[in-house]
Amino acid sequence: MSVLDVLTVPYELAVRTRHWFYRHGWLATRGLPCPVMSVGNVTVGGTGKTPFVIWLARQLQARGHRLGVLSRGYRRTSQAACLLVSDGREVLVEPQEAGDEPFLIAQRCPGVLVAVGTNRYEVGKWVLDRYPVDAFLLDDGFQHVALARDIDLVL
Predict the structure, then answer these.
(1) Of 10, 31, 85, 148, which has the fewest CB atoms closer than 10 Å, so is most exposed?
(2) In terms of residue numbers, what domain contains 23?
């Protein structure tokens, strides 16, 4: 048995307990006043979530939606609670500040706002206070249960 196997058991127990608290109302799920679509997976990495988010963002934008993409910004160097990667007109930060995936989304989706932060509810509120967004996509958001979603797309 490896060290990772030993650490997996308490981690899985903690995750299951946290999800149980959300399902039973002991922890509150908070919603934003616009549609939120989450793209995710039950595993980490390598399933095409970010390319799908880019494709979906382009499709929704082509249908007239003013879209925002929210991401945790995995491996980003910026510790800002909310970091605007792109205001929809230009990419505002470097890839290391934002994380590779949000930066890629910002590059590939001109006209789409991209923001990162650990608390996607707070980031979404921050965006809505400043920009005319009418829907959000969550990149890798399936396991982020604190933010209510209208649609979960699991790849």
Answers:
(1) 10
(2) 1-28
